[in-house]
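The instructor's notes for this session suggest beginning with a concrete chain rather than abstract definitions. Hand out the sequence below and ask the class to guess, before any prediction is shown, which regions might be ordered.
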Amino acid sequence: MTGIVGRMREALRGGQRVDPDDLITRLDAVRRFLTAVDGHLPDERLVPAHTLVERAGTRLALSRDHTVVALAGATGSGKSSLFNALARLDLSPVGVRRPTTGVAHACVWGPLDGANRLLDWIGVLPRHRFIRESALDGDDESALHGLVLLDLPDFDSVQHAHRLEVDRLLGLVDLVIWVVDPQKYADRLVHTGYLREFHRHRDVTLVVLNQADRLPPAELPRVLDDLRRLLDADGLPGVPLLATTAVDRSSTTELRAALEETVAERQASLRRLAGDIDTVVERLADLVEPEPVGTGPDAAGTRALTGALAAAAGVPAVTTAVEAAYRHRAAGATGWPVVRGWRRLRPDPLRRLHLPGGGEQTDGAVEKPLAATSVPDPTAAQRSALGLAVRTVADRAGGDLPAPWPAAVTGAARSRLGDVPDALDRAVAGTDLGVPERPVWWRLVGAVQWLVTLTALAGLAWLVLGYALNALGLPDPDEPMVGAVPLPTLLLLGGLLAGLLVAAVTRPVVRWAARRARLRAERRLAAAVAAVGEEHVLTPVRAVLTSYVEARNALRVAAGKK
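After discussion, reveal the predicted structure:
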């Protein structure tokens, strides 16, 4: 018997102890995973993880000095009789009518006060709690102090509420003893519905073939071998397998020895939680890739997004207005003074769009930014191009991620599209387009134009004075000659020709400077709309990718990987 118990103890130990600090680290990693994926993944995929975090936190906060062991089995397996045999008292009702056990019963070895909070959390009613203390055999039971043994309802009960209660309790206990009988040990329900689901809880699983006395001695090894084969197929190789009979309490010696070992180790609750973490991590593993993927929005997609935003913001119309406004203002400042007033009657292109720099501004005044512009609304084609650019950014950024992360990236990229039109309008209205009011060279050319114009006017006035004196019969004033040309005529013609020459020389310079102003405005507007794209599209996308990386790293830690 010593050899059997030793092998059973080794199987229950699982070959290694669970470090509480390491377990807490893994639980914290699951919690960080849930924080990272919050709002990005479907809630139904995260329910087991949320349940684990809540349940594990509560279990660790409750008594570490108690080990909760459940007897689970089908109708007629004799688990209530086994429960009474282990307690050596008749605590759980045993009867002919099935199912007999409708609610869980608990037997506590040691003071009941220390286990009450734990049983309150598990949900065992006070009237179904028993304490295993006796002055007659107290020393015999001392090795089990700290054991909380539960007799669960039958999981195959005709009453559906019993099975729901079993499923709930199986998620809370530290160790499960599956009780089967020779008639139904191969029942599909117990194997496919329960045992296979515990393949990651081998360290806290034990199987008992009860009512072994019903088998001929020669048949018992064969049944045990067949049951072992089924357990191996269920993913439970090495799980302790015992044969018991409730009518002979001496047959429970090995089972009691295993329970004593489990209680002494104080590891069952930690191993159960470790198995729960393994199960949750396995279910979540397909949500992240083993290797890093997703590098963020690429340069090509970002450039395409900026171009689509610029088109939707009306940047081409604005830059065209900037170039036209430069030529308009330059012509007004450097043109012939006689026609400048006529030019001022033409509207300023920037003023028509209610853009910065479009209003009259005195030297040194600070122009107030406009709340809205009159830039034309984007066309249907431009809106479609913007939507396509946003989708392209999302596809390139999250296309390599496992489902459903690509959908989360796309949703993040489109999450603030409704705010983009107003943001673009504010960006254009708040951008300094760099259109000068009166550069120095405009003033110099304007001064030259005034000088030649005054020269022409002086010559004209001189000639008019001469004609007036001649008409009045008065002697003509002497007109200085410059070669063969009278000076008044030279002043008039020279001023006019000089004004035309200055205008001819200035015109290509104005066109060149206007094109430079347009390019400067394009760069500034491109930076402004790029900032809108960064804030409303790229930043949400990067936030999802960052969450993915955090979730992946957290899940690796939860899986016990470095």
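Then share the key points. Residues 1-5, 95-99, 358-371 have pLDDT under 50 and may be disordered. Residues 301-435+507-558 form one domain.
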